[in-house]
């Protein structure tokens, strides 16, 4: 068995995958597309992979959804979105070619229609491209990509990422029929060099959360949509502190239950350039997350509850005394969920350290360190692998602001080479690790100074999701 392929996180059957694209739900069925090279486990020849699910956990891979139309000068189908328009679904994506059609100065935005009610085949109409850079007139936009479309009371809107005047930007466009588009202007601009994969979640009273990927940690802004601009920014936060070490290129959709679901790509950047194991796949998706908006403008995120159906054997500890000497639990697994609940006052100045993928000899372990004094949570990968060239830099995030003496909830998902950490459903970190020893499967606890009491700790071994080819 491939020890690094996740068992309950989504992966392509083989070869390369990156950004999630165009997720939607229709008639109870979830659809997921993703950036995919069907021939090699490396970036190139970008298609849209396609999979369907009834529960966001178990997936069936379908034939790819989009392929480059070489006869029309297209060599890549970059990222985009899906729009449910009555009984029809339309895909919007960035079309890239060679020469004048290059990604930096010649990108075009194309669309595809569902060819039947089964949503298994897709047709690119002759009207493509539906948007070109000529729409901007004298406004010069570079690296123009990743359409995201939604419906307003007076028609459709689209935002696209890129670079404008040397800074990352989301530009906004308008259409009445999803085919003829006009340029409105700048929806919002940041300080980063580039914005990729901009997308929105709408809330009540014109509140909106704008997500974007600036070639680093995925960020968000909470504000108000006013006059086709994002204004009155209330909060500017980090979606996931993993960045290219664990979480990038998010996208989202609203399912038929009204839940706002966020998806993100977990890259293999941490493998380094000369990974010593030959694998026929690369890339995974982080667990789908339900996003809610807090009164202070921050977002709350938690994995979709459907993932709990994969919980297997259960380990429970209450009033667990932990000291600076590492204590092994009786859980030995490389695919599990762990939930710790702690009283802030009882922790005091202690940092709690949860060691994952720990070997009995102590040579390999990955430590999740929760430190209330520094207000940080860290995935320490310095001893995560005996491979010499994998990336072992720490992934670190700021803890959410405490509200009184509320308990601390630390939730960890470990899956072969993936680690996702949630603190009070607000701070999220994702990282990739590649242990080498067969016995690197232990779970241990310790503190940084002296004894502390953990109110409760639960751990579940996780069953594999059913991810199969049609």
TrEMBL record:
Q: Any idea where the Glycosyl hydrolase family 32 N-terminal domain is? A: 9-297
Q: Where is the Glycosyl hydrolase family 32 C-terminal domain?
A: 306-461
Q: What keyword terms does UniProt attach to this protein?
A: Glycosidase, Hydrolase
InterPro entries to which the protein is assigned, alphabetical: ConA-like_dom_sf (IPR013320), GH32_Enzymes (IPR051214), Glyco_hydro_32 (IPR001362), Glyco_hydro_32_C (IPR013189), Glyco_hydro_32_N (IPR013148), Glyco_hydro_beta-prop_sf (IPR023296)
Quote the EC number. 3.2.1.26
GO MF assignments? hydrolase activity
Pfam annotation, one family:
Glyco_hydro_32N
CDD domains given for it? GH32_FFase
Family, as annotated: Belongs to the glycosyl hydrolase 32 family.
Q: What is this protein called?
A: beta-fructofuranosidase
């Amino acid at each position: 068995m491939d020890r690094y392929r996740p068992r309950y996180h989504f992966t392509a059957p083989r070869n390369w995958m990156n950004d999630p694209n165009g997720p939607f739900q229709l008639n109870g069925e979830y659809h997921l597309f993703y950036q995919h090279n069907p021939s090699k486990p490396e970036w190139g020849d970008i298609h849209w992979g396609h999979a369907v699910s009834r529960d966001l956990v178990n997936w069936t891979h379908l034939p790819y959804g989009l392929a480059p139309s070489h006869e029309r000068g297209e060599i890549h189908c970059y990222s985009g979105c899906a729009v449910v328009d009555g009984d029809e679904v339309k895909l919007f994506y960035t079309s890239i070619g060679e020469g004048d059609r290059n990604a930096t100065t010649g990108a075009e935005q194309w669309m595809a229609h569902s060819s039947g009610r089964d949503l298994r085949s897709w047709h690119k109409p002759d009207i493509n491209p539906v948007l070109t850079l000529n729409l901007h007139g004298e406004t010069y936009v570079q690296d123009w990509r990743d359409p995201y479309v939604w419906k307003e009371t007076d028609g459709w809107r689209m935002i696209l990422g890129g670079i404008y005047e040397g800074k990352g930007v989301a530009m906004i466009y308008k259409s009445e029929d999803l085919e003829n588009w006009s340029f409105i202007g700048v929806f919002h601009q940041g300080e980063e060099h580039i914005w990729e994969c901009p997308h929105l979640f709408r809330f009540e009273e014109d509140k909106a959360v704008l997500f974007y990927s600036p070639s680093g940690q995925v960020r968000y802004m909470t504000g108000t949509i006013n006059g086709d601009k994002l204004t009155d920014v209330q909060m500017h936060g980090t979606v996931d502190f993993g960045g290219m070490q664990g979480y990038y290129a998010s996208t989202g959709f609203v399912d038929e239950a009204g839940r706002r679901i966020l998806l993100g790509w977990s890259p293999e950047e941490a493998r380094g350039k000369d990974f010593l194991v030959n694998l026929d796949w690369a890339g995974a998706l982080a667990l789908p997350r339900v996003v809610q908006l807090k009164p202070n403008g921050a977002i709350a995120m938690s994995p979709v509850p459907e993932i709990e159906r994969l919980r297997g054997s259960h380990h429970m500890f209450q009033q667990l005394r932990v000291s600076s000497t590492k204590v092994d639990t009786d859980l030995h697994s490389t695919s599990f969920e762990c939930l710790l609940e702690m009283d802030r006052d009882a922790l005091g100045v202690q940092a709690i350290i949860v060691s994952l993928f720990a070997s009995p000899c102590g040579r390999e372990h990955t430590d999740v360190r929760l430190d209330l004094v520094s207000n940080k949570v860290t995935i320490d990968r310095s001893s995560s692998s005996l491979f010499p060239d994998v990336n072992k830099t720490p992934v670190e995030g700021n803890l959410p602001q405490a509200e009184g003496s509320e308990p601390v909830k630390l939730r960890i998902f470990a899956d072969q080479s993936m680690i996702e950490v949630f603190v009070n459903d607000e701070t999220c970190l994702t990282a990739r690790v590649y242990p080498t020893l067969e016995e690197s499967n232990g779970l241990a606890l310790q503190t940084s100074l002296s004894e502390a009491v953990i109110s409760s700790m639960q751990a579940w071994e996780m069953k594999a999701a059913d991810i199969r080819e049609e």
